[in-house]
Amino acid sequence: MKSSIRGLAELVLKNIDVLEADCAKRGVQEPSVLDPYKPGSEFTVDGGNVQQASTIIVAAAQQLIQTVQSPQINSQMIAFSATLAGAIRIATEFNIADILLEAGSKGLHVKDISSICKADPVKIGQILRLLASAWIFKEVKPDVFANNRNSSIMVKGLSVKKLLDDPDLKYSRPEAATPASLAEISDDTGKGASYLFETLSDPKTAFSEEANEAALCRAFNTNLACWDFFELPDQRERLNRFGVAMQGMSKLEPLDITLKGFDWEGLKKGSLVVDVGGGIGSFSLALAKEHPHLKFVVQDRAPVVEEGIDRLKELDPEELESGRISFQEHNFFESQPIRDADVYMLKFIVHDWSNKYSEIILRRLREAAGPHSRLVIVDKVIPYICPTSESNGEVSIPGVLKPDLPEPIVNMSAGIIYPHLSSVVMMLYCNGQERTIGGFEELLAKAGWKLSAVYQHDAFGQYSSQILATPI
Ligand SMILES: C[S@@+](CC[C@H](N)C(=O)[O-])C[C@H]1O[C@@H](n2cnc3c(N)ncnc32)[C@H](O)[C@@H]1O
Predict the structure, then answer these.
(1) Whether residue 435 sits in one domain with residue 339
(2) What are 93-107's pLDDT values in tens digits?
(3) Does residue 457 carry a catalytic annotation?
(4) Are both 281 and 369 inside the same structural domain?
(5) Angle 167-172-174 (CA atoms, 0-180°, nearest 5)?
(6) What is the residue range of 55's domain?
(7) In Å, how far are 12, 37, 55, 139 from 32, measured between CA atoms?
(8) Which of 351, 372, 420, 457 is catalytic?
(9) Same domain, 443 and 308
């Protein structure tokens, strides 16, 4: 019988044929980890064959590593990942990718890097070598570092002089969204993660569903929910960075993905969509542009509504004057003022809240819904790691995609851990969670909704899905 590691290696090779053919067809070279990133060089351009081939390569290669490396090393590398996060934060906050961008491909000696960022060269050298061993930066000569594919995405779009003269500008440019998200993740997520055990083992917080008793609150030694804590006057920098970081995270998901799926076009002319917790209305505006026959009310907290109106006045005053998009101050834990809407929409809301609070939000909408109202939740649907079938408890909902991975791959996440990380990150920030399809079905049923269909764009939960529910 063929060994599993050979089977995995053969899978890698077979799928590399697909990637090479794609490069030849596009007349481009395969990307190198050593060179700075060029936009469009990812193997995901066609979203079909090539995407599937790169997913299989990643899944097979990771299983190969997990099989060949000792279990001690495999698990220790995960336990050590906080150290890597600390190192990446140093690189981001000390503007090291920006310094190396100005140094060019020959790189810069660690003494010169450290003198620009006013840090200890012995310590910075260790940190850069750790990162280079993990494929972030490259050591081109002993103690001389340069940017590579992974570090080059950490540049912030301003000269080093500007970044040093005015540190407040660090995350001010749109290009800084990715470094801001790296700094946010490695800082706050890291702090919260290091208090997960204390939070989950302390009887006062172990079963808590309160946003202000999450691990990050313990890390900050506050009894405020993280979003209230971020709004304190002395947390201004953190709040700014968080805002830019969220833009960076949202870039991981093409906007048109969330615009596709649910049949917005099939709604009758003049149908009303209530965007509950709709923020500054970006998604409603995008939907309104695609489907001019619909009307939207964006509901959120008072300061957010104010910001949304100001922004729309600037971006698209006609849309506001026409009344096709309007804003309304509303607390989604209170009675929903718009009864019998055609669609109630919750985008990136339910994952912020524990089951207790999500159920209240959903119940308020159920009380307002008419028999023909529909609910559209936009959030990730977390896949199970095991293969599913009706015989092992699979929830059968139209539209759920199943991972299509060949043997001998056994981990149905395909090594794509991002959605699962996202779920635990929601827990440590605010006791929220991403949910499996079974989790959504149960939650919706408790609040009086029937989960009737799901629109998905991938089977691994990387991108958000639309979950359609109807009143029970
Ligand atoms: C993650 S954002 C999602 C915003 C928007 N739906 C989107 O996808 O861009 C969560 C939103 O919930 C709003 N929010 C938080 N608590 C709220 C409440 N009690 N009532 C109404 N909105 C609330 C926040 O102000 C924020 O705009």
Answers:
(1) yes
(2) 999 999 999 999 999
(3) no
(4) yes
(5) 145
(6) 4-74
(7) 17, 8, 18, 15
(8) 351
(9) yes
